[in-house]
Write a structure and sequence with these properties.
mainly alpha
Length: 87
């Protein structure tokens, strides 16, 4: 897990066009990016979850899709912030 965190910091430093982001902003954005990726993975797990009860399956699929969509949006927003910087 630490290795992924360090790679995200390195990539975000290399892709930043201007050096206006402080280290604290880069670390916070990287943590939020990791959390949104975890949200996508957890949502995918809920989508793939199968039980014998179809009502529960329907609810978990809806919940999983919502988590996945919000996680994808969060990931793209964090990457956009890290690449373009604050406006």
């Amino acid at each position: 897990m630490n290795r992924i965190f360090y790679y995200l910091i390195l990539i975000s430093c290399l892709l930043a066009k201007d050096n206006t982001l402080t280290k604290f902003q880069i670390i916070i954005a990287s943590i939020l990016c990791i959390l949104s990726i975890i949200l996508v993975i957890a949502g995918y797990k809920f989508i793939r979850l199968r039980t014998k009860n179809y009502d529960i399956d329907y609810f978990t699929k809806l919940f999983g899709w919502a988590m996945t969509i919000f996680g994808i949006i969060g990931t793209f927003e964090c990457l956009k912030y890290l690449i373009k910087g604050p406006k």
